[in-house]
Amino acid sequence: MNAATGRAVGGPGGRASGKDEFPHLFSPITIGQVRVPNRFVVPALTTNFAEHDGAVGDRLLEYLRQRFEGGFGLVITENIGVHPSGRVMPRMVMAHEDRFVDGLRRLAQEVRGSGGVLFGQLSHAGRQTRSTITGQSLVAASAIPCPLNREMPRALETEEIGGMEQAFVQAARRLAEAGFDGVEIHAAHGYLVGGFLSRYSNIRTDEYGGSLENRMRFLLNIVAGIKQAAGSGFPVSVRISAREFVDQGLDLPEARDIAKALAAAGVNALSVSVGVYESFNRLSMITGEQEGRWLELAGDLRREAAPMPVIGVGRIKRPEVAEAALAEGLIDLAAFGRASIADPGLPLKVRQGRSDDIDWCLGCNICLGRSSRPESICPVNPAVGRERDFQVQPSAHPTRINIMGSSFSALTAAWIAARRGHDVSIDPAGTPLGGMQYWRSRVPGQEEYGEVIVALERRARRAGVRFQSGEVADDAVVWRVRCYQPLNQDLLDAHPDATTVYQVLAALRVPEAGRRVLVHGADLASVEAAILMQSRGCRVRLLVPARDVGLDAHPGYREACRVLLAETGAEVFLESGAEISEQTMRWADALVIGHGSIARYDDQSAWTDFTAPGNGDRCLADAYEPGLMTRGIYAAADMVLEFGNEKSIGTTE
Ligand SMILES: Cc1cc2nc3c(=O)[nH]c(=O)nc-3n(C[C@H](O)[C@H](O)[C@H](O)COP(=O)(O)O)c2cc1C
Ligand code: SF4
Question: Does residue 77 sit within a domain?
């Protein structure tokens, strides 16, 4: 049973129509001598779920078990640290000492089920971490700080490099001893090995720098060392960034030579990714980006790397995208990264012809911020990170529940409650389904939010939730949605005729095309209201009382906001001040007000008024920014799992 969905998975009862529709995805393949039962791959995805000392514990085990149960043929663990100086998350899995083998063995023995294949990704973050996480100074190919983390690393001495190669080799040996099916060397994304490969981060003058041959030395020595220590029958995959999208960074011509060299070195699979931290939005593309955008790159390298199987990645969500790339010969395996976080049961649903039951990844990248927000990770899958505790069990006290409002939290609460046997109805209370995320789905580039609304509604209906407006039964418990709408109250008081960004997004008050509109705000809602109006023919000036736009959003989103604002032609004025001068006002026909700084979720004045009348009644949240929305969804899920229980379930940590 899948704890997240509460549905039976696999087994002879499942329809097999997906197998006929997606013959390539469901055909086996061998990597080295290891048979992978299908082409669905979970690529390395840092979870931050290890124990405090870096050992594997139950939390990670359950997380990975669900991905195997969901039908992924090859699961590559998150990056596993080969040396303390390369730790990238406070709770990263480590393998730099023999004492970690027991936990890793548990992982290898307990989660694979029948037929699934487990690889461990070996990694050192190089300069792309912080000494506050590693507890020691950073090391890298050269003493050049990562432009994002901005901490100066120390260039490894030539004599030290052999020791670092051995750290990878010994970690691989430990994984082989623990019973892993293979390893992947993380040579992508600007981490230590990738940093050696690229002129962007390697300006060494010894035998590890300069020519590509020299820059590949570190990686090739690691490969050779692992082959020797773990045996040639132990598969080794390598992940590289085929393009880094930075000055002096790796690009196709050199990536082709790397692929050729790896094939010649006996590497068993090549995973083709892109990007470094500085170009993160290419690496983990956000909402609205083309699915499978980098598969052509993988196809290019596949020709060089033959006969090595190639794993393609890059916003693959739909099985159709993966199947087409497999059929065209661009890739041999398809990595569903965030798609596997959002729905661990994706392959099984496809196999059973239930693709319309998939919980689609939004590309919101909240999962990337999990070290800073460990309590809520994915808005479409509130089971992430607490798979073991997230049990949708029948309630001992079935209750009639009426939900007023239809935010993501409301829809999530509804399907969970209905699965628990409660009699649930939703009254959207005159608003479109999806609440604030419906508004969002109307902003150019954010249409995928609409897809999730459809999926959530379908899920709720299948669980037995009724959608109806009108009278509430006398004995019904009422759960109401409260909206979180932070606004600059001082400006609203000073300009009583102004519109709010939420009124614009909800299409309640949108200035006509051709009007000159001033938007004042530093939050995501202000940015997206500006984009919406500009794309509908208004002339928009966005006044930002801060150094950047969309302060409450993930950094990747902020970058996308800047690009979209520029593309639509909206003018942006950073550090514009908290007030609006008369001269600035004279230019405008209309004023739209958002929030001036980082929104504080616990700021009570930002919530719509609501008086809870007691008697089992509850509040559910709605918020515009994805991180805040996710908090609301996790809280809703927790509330429903506890509702009517005598005993509460455990929490995340
Ligand atoms: C939360 C998160 C953690 C990640 N951790 C790793 C990692 O440990 N190693 C790695 O090579 N890539 C990592 N990546 C990159 C993914 O493996 C993948 O290449 C990227 O997300 C693009 O694939 P997708 O669009 O299918 O998600 C991570 C991405 C995310 C979103
Ligand atoms: S948090 Fe967002 S990006 Fe990450 S898996 Fe979930 S929906 Fe996708």
Answer: yes
